[in-house]
Amino acid sequence: MIKRAENRVKDQKKMFNGAGEARMLHILEAGEEMYNKGRVFNHLFLDPGCEIGWHIHHGDGETYYILKGEGEYSDNGTIVTLHPGDIAFVDDGEGHSLINKGTETLEAIALILYK
Q1: Total domain count for the chain?
Q2: Rg value, the chain, Cα
Q3: Which residues are 87's β-sheet partners?
Q4: Which end of the chain, N or C, is less surrounded by CB atoms within 10 Å?
Q5: What share of the chain is helix, strand, coil (3-state, %, to 5)?
Q6: Cα–Cα distances in Å, from 110 out to 68, 79, 89, 94?
Q7: CB of 66 within 8 A of CB of 83?
Q8: Rounded CA gap, 23 and 10, in Å?
Q9: Residue 2 lies in a domain
């Protein structure tokens, strides 16, 4: 399978009541493309001031791999700053959020796999 850049699914939406909207470029689609093992595999973009609001995962876990920019990450209520190359993981039953408090677009790979 080859997915050409110009044909990939793009999405933009408010995430968990966070400020602004997140933009996503789908890498793989949920279901068959992920062998039914996950529901998200996206290139994520958060402009300055935008965020993915606090939420708890149920039946899955999520990994963020930071590519560009800087983000303030809540790891079950503990606030840490993420930089390019950092990885954040939230397990089933745990919560997190991510906000771009920097001056450039934050880019990350987001992967949600079922437990």
Answers
A1: 1
A2: 14
A3: 65
A4: N
A5: 5, 55, 40
A6: 13, 19, 10, 16
A7: yes
A8: 7
A9: no
**What whole-number distance in Å separates Cα of residue 42 and Cα of residue 52?**
14
Mean pLDDT value of segment 14-34: 97
Could you tell me the two tokens for 52?
């993915």
Domain harbouring 110, CATH code: 2.60.120.10
Does a structural domain hold residue 37? yes
Q: How far is CA 94 from the centre of its chain?
A: 15
**Tokens of residue 12, six digits:** 């933009």
Q: pLDDT (tens digit, 9 = 90+) per residue, 32-83?
A: 999 999 999 999 999 999 999 999 999 999 999 999 999 999 999 999 999 9
Among all chains, which residue has been given the structure tokens 């935008």? Answer: 50
Residue recorded with tokens 């437990």: 115
